[in-house]
Amino acid sequence: MKNINHYGAVLAAAVLVTTGAALATPAEAHTTGIHDNCTNLNKTWKHGVGRKGAVDKTSGSKVTNFYRNTKQYNLAVSHNGTLDRDKDGIACEKK
User: Fold this and answer.
1) Are residues 42 and 21 in the same domain?
2) 39 and 62: one domain?
3) What pTM, to 2 d.p., does this model score?
4) Cβ(66)–Cβ(50) under 8 Å?
5) Among 19, 26, 46, 73, which residue carries the largest CB count within 10 Å?
């Protein structure tokens, strides 16, 4: 009977730990990486990062001075898909 109580306590502790971790929001879980948001990404690449050959989708003047690096763009978007909201191949573009 002691073993059953021990395993029950271990299971209850595991549930509490798992539940507590699940309640953390994504922002609380990880907020220090370059790809977490555009503010952090623009500290490294002032005008954003995009695929080689990408063209800014805008009705105004297009951003052309973004950092062109397909590998870095793919890494950024795979970490945080919201960095390229208009899906033009340029993450966090700004003039």
Assistant:
1) no
2) yes
3) 0.65
4) yes
5) 73
> H-helix or E-strand containing 18?
helix 2-23
Residue at 33: amino acid letter: G
Which tens digits make up the pLDDT trace of 27-82?
444 455 888 999 999 999 999 999 999 999 987 899 999 999 999 999 999 999 99
- Is 86 a residue whose pLDDT tops 70? yes
List, edge to edge, every strand of the sheet that includes 90-91.
Answer: 67-68, 49-50, 90-91
* Residue 46 structural domain: 33-95
Are 16 and 61 part of one and the same domain?
no
Contacts of 59 (CB under 8 A, 6+ apart): none
Domain count, the chain: 2
